Amino acid sequence: MTPASFPARGLADRLTTLFWRHPRILLVLLLTPPLLWLGVVYLGSLAALLLQSFYALDSFSGLIVPEFTLKTYAQLFTQSNLSIILRTLLMASAVTAASTIIAFPIAYYAARYAKGRLKAAFYLGVMLPLWSSYLVKVYAFKLILAKEGIVTWVATSTHTDWLLTAALSLPYVGGNSLATSYLGTFTVFCYVWLPYMILPMQAALERVPTTMLEAAADLGATARQTFWTVTMPLALPGIIAGSIFTFSLTLGDYIIPQIIGNSASYIGMAVYQLQGTAGNIPLAAAFAVVPILIMLVYLTLARKAGAFDAL
Amino acid sequence: MRSDAPLSLKLTAGAGLLFLHLPILLIFLYAFTSEERSFAFPPPGLTTKWFAVAWNRADIWPPLILSLQVAFLATILALILGTLISAAMSGAKFWGRDQLSLLIILPIALPGVITGIALRAAIPMLHLDFSALTIVLGHATFCIVIVYNNAVARFRRLSGGILEASADLGANAFQTFRHILMPNLGTALLAGGMLAFALSFDEVIVTTFTAGVGAASKTLPIWMLDELIRPRQRPVTNVVAMVVFATTFLPILGAYYLTRDGAETAGAGK
Predict the structure, then answer these.
(1) What is the pLDDT of residues B39-85, one digit of tens each?
(2) Are B40 and B234 spatial neighbours (Cβ–Cβ below 8 Å)?
(3) Measuring CA to CA, which residue among B26, B89, B85, B62 is closest to residue B234?
């Protein structure tokens, strides 16, 4: 009788036998390098961030005092800092709402009507702007929204400049030009994050079974009723999944309001400026904890709404 | 079911797509404008001289080369780490699997400013200096998930049967890896790597927090950001923007074509 297996011919074979008999060893070998990286570099940094937020800056020497204190969080809850947080939250909510409205027709058309090549074109048409350079996109809007730029030109040549003037003279959101107003910042946020909303929304709409829509029609529902009572509830998890991105990305961004806007501060800008010129890492860290907490609450709610299955 | 979309839907969907694409085209147009001090529209004249000017500007080349190097290193690291995790995740069920999948997506689920400030706070605590290497450190961290997403989808589609068949025919684990696993994973890894490269090449938020001072850590996006805040020759910035756009556009398109036949098309999530 010859044995049923080949004899081991070298180290590689012996290792193979070891992996076969003890799959855990292979698993540990596979997981150790990435776990070390994510655990040390990423989680370690997050822990350092949290730790630093409980330190404080010595107001005389300007050095960080590595002792536990809640002073930094007390600073965070002053009036001016709270208004930065509130402004960021309002902007993130407005951008999310507007993105939902602009994204819906694109996602709906791509999911329901586009077939074959047109569908591929729609997919690429959303995916390319999603991945293409963030800074280039922001720069494009600096060109567009400039006072001498194309928006003003289009408004003047179509005799709708009264509309632009009216929008810019709105209290609070208006300003000297689109490039220096909340309206401008808001437009750029919507533009840059829009693809993040479209893709999960489209995926969710594609998963709505057509048989259900037919059943609704058979039972006498009008197109409008079918839309609001069948399509929308089924697509909602996808919309919430998209909103996670638009909301989270707006919460943390600091480049867009720095380049297009009225120089009002946002959480991201506060974090950047505090760690940079002021060297106040503790307060910057405390500021950074705010979006983490907000996103944890948001993610918990989204998970309850079933948005994670739609990702 | 109606097979044709209502006109209003067609119009709003079309307008939405135009909104996504027209701004990029304007970048191209302004690279040819003869007006260098403002963004006047329509451009008063057209010229191709800015391409030559950009080519001869000594301050553009080092950032471009650094960005390519950083993106290359970050992609290699992300490819190794992302493939390892996806291999582990697609295999056995183990304790902590769900927590691990959350940990992988966290660097892109949380805003970039968090990753940035966290690294900013942590690196000096380890007595390390900020440099081009710390940029790579940050970039690799959020690129892992890109590779992972592509690889894990391919692993899922790959039937376990062919790995067993390979073992039954006498191949050892390394031969199976070389001759069976790699050819099957190849395009998914290439697609993931290309997306990771594109993402790293134009990343600016985490970079501003992890870069050292001075020219040695000035990537091309940081150069561009400086130009956006303090413009000098605006059309030159447009030429560079076109280069950045092309350098990210081509790998993204490539990743799409490499994976479009499968159930998992690259780039569905960022």
Answers:
(1) 877 888 888 888 888 888 888 899 999 999 999 999 999 999 999 99
(2) no
(3) B26
pLDDT bracket for residue B265 (50, 70, 90): low
**What percent of chain A is modeled with pLDDT above 90?**
25
For the segment(s) B54-259, the CATH number from 1.10.3720.10, 3.40.50.720, 3.40.50.150, 3.40.50.2000 is 1.10.3720.10
Closest chain B CA to residue A151: B41
Whether B237 and chain A come into contact, CB under 8 Å, resolves to: yes
Condensed to tens digits (0 to 9), the pLDDT of residues A133-156 reads 888 899 889 888 888 888 888 888
Q: Which residues of chain A are modeled with pLDDT < 70?
A: 1-8, 308-311
Predicted TM-score (pTM) of this structure: 0.87
Element (H, E) at A64: strand A64-65
Cα B74 to Cα B194: distance, rounded to the nearest angstrom: 11
Phi then psi for residue A91, to 5 deg, are -60, -45
Chain A interface mutation, best of B3, B20, B264, highest count of A Cβ atoms under 10 Å: B20
| ipTM of the complex as predicted | 0.85
Give B 195-234 residues with CB within 8 A of chain A. Answer: 195, 198-199, 202-205, 208-209, 221, 224-225, 228-229
Q: What angle do CA A97, B268, A298 make, to 5 degrees?
A: 40
Nearest alpha carbon to residue A274 among B121, B134, B77: B121
Inform me whether the C-beta atom of residue A192 falls under 8 Å from chain B C-beta atoms: no
Q: Angle at Cα A231 formed by Cα A229 and Cα A234, nearest 5°?
A: 95
Domain residue spans in chain B? 54-259
